[in-house]
Amino acid sequence: MSALYKRCCLLSFLLVAVSINSLSKINADEGMWLFNDLPKDYLKSKHGFEPTDEWADKLMKSCVRFNVGGSASFISSNGLVLTNHHVAFDTLSKLSNDENNYAKDGFLAKSMDSELKAPDLELNQLQKITDVTDKVNESVTADMAPADAAKARRARIDEIQTAATDESGLRSDVVTLYGGGKYHLYQYKKYTDVRLVWAPEAGIAFFGGDADNFEYPRFNLDATIFRVYEDGMPAKIEHFLKWSENGPDENELVFVAGNPGRTSRIFTTDALKHQRDTRMPYILDFIRRREVLLQQFGLGGPEKERIAKDQLFGIQNSRKAYMGMLGGLQDPSVMATAEAAEQKLLEKVKSTPELQEYASAWDKIADVQKRKAEMQGQGVLISSRMFSIAQELVQMATEDQKPSSERLREFQDSGRDSLEQQLFSSAPIYPELQQAVLADEIARMCEIRGADDELCQKILAGKNPIDRASELIMGSKLGDPEVRRKVATGGIEAIKSSDDPLIKLALIVDDKVRADRKVSEELGEIEKQAYAQISKVLFAANGTSVYPDATFTLRLAFGPVTGYEEKGKSIPAFTDIDGTFAHEEGHAGQKDFDLPETWAAARGKIPGGTKMNFVCTADIIGGNSGSPVVNKDLELVGLIFDGNIQSLIADYAYTDKQGRSVSVHSNAIREALRYVYDAETLADQLGK
Amino acid sequence: MSALYKRCCLLSFLLVAVSINSLSKINADEGMWLFNDLPKDYLKSKHGFEPTDEWADKLMKSCVRFNVGGSASFISSNGLVLTNHHVAFDTLSKLSNDENNYAKDGFLAKSMDSELKAPDLELNQLQKITDVTDKVNESVTADMAPADAAKARRARIDEIQTAATDESGLRSDVVTLYGGGKYHLYQYKKYTDVRLVWAPEAGIAFFGGDADNFEYPRFNLDATIFRVYEDGMPAKIEHFLKWSENGPDENELVFVAGNPGRTSRIFTTDALKHQRDTRMPYILDFIRRREVLLQQFGLGGPEKERIAKDQLFGIQNSRKAYMGMLGGLQDPSVMATAEAAEQKLLEKVKSTPELQEYASAWDKIADVQKRKAEMQGQGVLISSRMFSIAQELVQMATEDQKPSSERLREFQDSGRDSLEQQLFSSAPIYPELQQAVLADEIARMCEIRGADDELCQKILAGKNPIDRASELIMGSKLGDPEVRRKVATGGIEAIKSSDDPLIKLALIVDDKVRADRKVSEELGEIEKQAYAQISKVLFAANGTSVYPDATFTLRLAFGPVTGYEEKGKSIPAFTDIDGTFAHEEGHAGQKDFDLPETWAAARGKIPGGTKMNFVCTADIIGGNSGSPVVNKDLELVGLIFDGNIQSLIADYAYTDKQGRSVSVHSNAIREALRYVYDAETLADQLGK
Question: Which fold has domain A33-254+554-685?
């Protein structure tokens, strides 16, 4: 598990000065760079390496995005895909049942026949990036109200996406960059037949558990291998990464290609304070609440524990990340740095005539924060899988009556396949867990709005939250994907005549949900326009060589493999297999520090000194989990799986003083396959 | 662990109709009765038993109150005291260290010499109850402002307590009953030399763990035995309970004598809604936050897990109890019942000329709820042991400059011994845990007030919460009780000249703390006066035979030993040793369901059919933990340790349809001492 999965993160107890709003100039090896705008000059002057367009194209096409939130790469001509165990965990859990707990105990397909098909994975391979900024902006005029502008922009984006999909057959997403300063069209080849080949035990993938999460030195084999299929056969892959013989040298420049989820380096101080005082405390209360709920649920026995584990892992990871992020923002010196940087920029705006029209951007953002604070927690808060399914079906039926470009974004034609892939997934849904979660969500909504609130009373329907949730889940048939498909096919009539209690509930709250969403999109549009203006100020102040905030699209980061100093101690760049066993012994009796039996049995067989993990200074964040780490020759040398505590301020700023990304060493994966898992055949395919 | 420790509790998923504001008439075997006002007529007519004054006096003096929050009884002439393991847990933890974990592994003193002295226990034995209502009320006139009235009342209470202590040498507490309708003086003999004699392993005391908490059937030996000493010798005890040979029969009437903590059966619906929508959600967020923090801390290794366990136990227990309580209040039918009952009472007030002057009481309470909601979370929130110590020292130094009757209540002369017993306790304080807790509390305060808040900035002193907490705890010497004693002796000068960072912090926040407390006491006084008026209405409406809400003072409850129906199944009144082993087997592989080795070894030795636990209908709540259950002949037949889920609405209402209090059977304790713990000598002393 790691900071780098889905959620962006930041930890903070750093005393190092960090550059906030440094979107500006390149600070050391900072940056999550666009593949169509790599910092070639910087790489050449600083590192003596100039990537060619062919180099970039080859790397781009060797990369894979996990739509559930993670990164990966092709590592063989016959479709093997390498990612983290914790990125795969959701799928591993869905493939597990009360007899085979692959998420915990691992899996190895002895032959291709026995590879296990994932119920709802969609993998994306980026093919092409096109700048469509002008096309998108043509649709918006200066005199449009924010809501109209947002609507016009959404419609135009859908047109572009649909046309591109129709023309190419590729998944086509328009991505908003620089907070609205640019729009690029990303086109992907999709793989939806994805099969599990190998996963190690959770005991080595997440060795050290929550206690070691975000720590370094580490000793984890946080890796899993899938294979993509086309037409029932292993896909033939043209672009894949070769496997490095020995991995990286110390101080060697390496590259990380992956999909960082979201950064907020452009945020104004008002936006940062909104995060600090309003949004993050709210999210953390929710996270802790869900964590406690899932743990309590898991006390009901080993099977319940297994069922709750996937969500619990993610929740605990997010909690640790958000707590760090919040701790950083609460540091008076961090905020003072941000305020000083902003003040400097504002002075530049005031003193530069052609920038003065943008001065109001900061105030607009401040106003939006106030509105957001008022709205927080006032919506329909029910975060539950079964309820979401009902809500999607209800909304889809209404939206499908409109032309694609006027629909809510997720129901537009261009994303329909991906939507249905999730909505009709055969992944198991466990009623008991659904009940516990829904009861707690109804209770939470009653707490925040007050139980006498009209909407709450409608939701409760005369019952307490636990009884009401039980009635809703037990009475619903939406757990069955075939029922969902049938309801979806039936359109608005099927919805109106449905007696499914969850669909009825979704109908009750639909007006409120839509009204809230409208306001929230309006506020988003105001922010988008304001940040686009601030981007222009930053371009003007610092030149064009800046990278945009992360958007869960492919980016290139880089930096040398190098250790750091901490509390007066030198932390080495690499760890090895001997350290792994020593780490187990040093934490005897501690939860999550027992290596799996396979590793105890292989002790002595794995060559001594085999490298396990390493750190480098590449600028990464949540979403980068599973990213390949490659050398200049595009050989795979590592697999990103975490950032250390000191790196986690990355949501707001980059630092390479102590901040490091943490990777599994390529040798560790190969030798583990050979000596621990008796998977010589698989090991032989790596990079071939 | 149990619902009955410290916190009062309520669970709720009950569909049974419950009587709210039923303070009124006796409903079945409802009631937590005053020992000086027992429901003799009811007992006689319903159960054919009339307790004599001697009977009541004997039972009263056989009871013991644990000031940390729990009940107990004398069970031998040589000072043996029986309570729950979970009441003793705080002391067991304080006596444990990294070598001997008595809290987990149990303890048996092989001889009196090896009994272990508790660092800060104070046990109270009630001697006398006197009605002092008139004396207290003389001090208050109708034209006084609430703040003045509260002050006058506090001063008079201190005078009464001090005079009573001076005269008798007993601990003397004036207790507010019927929300201010009556004041009684309770006088206790104190025991402060309390030694641990025997505790079983946590594995049997808390068998089934959090999963089984609030459940029935149960199989726990939630018991621990202490001995009180006087002048270094085992105390000679005149009033103690005999040990029943066989325990209670099914349907036999039994009595529970203990100290229920707090009930709120008099609450108006506005007050209930304040609990539901404002106070409980706030408390639960705090509880979950602390739970997650303590768990994360415990991941640092076995010793850290041990250190955090005591607080974690209490927190998890409270969470489950509060969640149930809240779930009950969120049930529309529960609130509707309360509203109907209140409406009826209000109609009575309007139609009865002599009651009309009290009609405004409900509005006053409603106003107070609004004020409380505004204040919630706006104070100095730092809930941390080390900070509390600093704060007590700072406040004590200021308060001691005033005459006793004008001081904040806890610093008055009459309670000084008990205050110092806690303040100078030699119980270990663990800096690492203190740091983690303090950092989180500072962060919490910043979240609620916003980190830019002036007071927060003063508290942070330029650092993030984690670094600041580290500086405060590492720089403070208050962990050493001798340092505390020295600072206390030095008075106000020692405080002013102290360079202890925690004392400095306590000084920074002192004005705010005092101002908040003043407002909160004012609001409390308004409520007190209003509830006193409502009590008068209830007396008028229902006659005088009513019991007051619980006040952590000795009360008598009663009811037959009897099972109940649940989900169509008959739940028997008793469980036995065979069920204990079956319960372990039925939950194989589940956390907290492994019996200790001693029990496995004793299997076959303990007589088959030995009763373990039983249920009865007695009306109990948090604070009753450890209460003796006795028969008409005042023989000990059981030891209260929990209430089942259905009983936990008791904070607001009593129900005997399914609600049951859960006890350890007296036989279980005796046979366990004999056959599991090889403690024949101790077993022979029971009841002798």
Answer: Thrombin, subunit H (2.40.10)
Q: A411 with A399: CB under 8 angstroms? A: yes
Q: Which residues of A touch B334 (CB under 8 A)?
A: 464
Of A356-360, B20-24, B240-244, B408-412, where does the model show the most confidence?
A: B240-244
Asked whether the beta carbons of A25 and A567 are under 8 A apart, the reply is no
What is the fold of B1-122+192-262+330-351+555-688?
Thrombin, subunit H (2.40.10)
| Higher local confidence (pLDDT), A12 or B623 | B623
pLDDT digits (tens, 9 = 90+) for B357-390: 999 999 999 999 999 999 998 888 888 899 999 9
Question: What per-residue confidence (pLDDT) applies to A544?
Answer: 57
Q: How far, in Å, CA of A298 to CA of A306, rounded?
A: 7
What is the average pLDDT across B31-49? 93
**CB pair distance less than 8 Å for B464 and A292:** no
The distance of A204 to chain B (nearest Cα, Å) reads: 17
pLDDT one-digit tens code per residue, A150-179: 889 989 999 999 999 999 999 999 999 988
Q: Where are the domains of chain A?
A: 33-254+554-685, 379-543
Binary contact (A12, B464; C-beta < 8 A): yes
Angle between helices B385-399 and B465-475 (to 10 degrees): 60
Place of tokens 């306790």: B425
Q: What gap in Å lies between CA A291 and CA A468, rounded to an integer?
A: 22
Which among A210, A326, A460 has CB closest to B332?
A: A460
pLDDT digits (tens, 9 = 90+) for A596-647: 999 999 999 999 999 999 999 999 999 999 999 999 999 999 999 999 988 8
Task: Show Cβ contacts of residue A330 under 8 Å, excluding neighbours closer than 6 positions.
Answer: A276, B443, B446, B451, B460, B464, B465
Q: Report the predicted TM-score, pTM, of the whole model to 2 decimal places.
A: 0.88
Angstrom distance (rounded) from CA B80 to CA B685: 8
Q: Do B281 and A448 touch (CB under 8 A)?
A: yes
Separation between Cα atoms, residue A96 and residue A89, nearest integer Å:
10
Q: What is the rounded CA–CA span in Å between residue A597 and residue A397?
A: 52
Question: Pairing between strand B635-643 and B242-243?
Answer: parallel
As a whole number of angstroms, the distance between CA A88 and CA A222 comes to: 10
Distance from CA of A609 to the nearest CA of B (A): 27
Phi then psi for A479, rounded to 5 degrees? -65, -20
Alpha-carbon gap: A517 to the closest alpha carbon of chain B (Å): 25
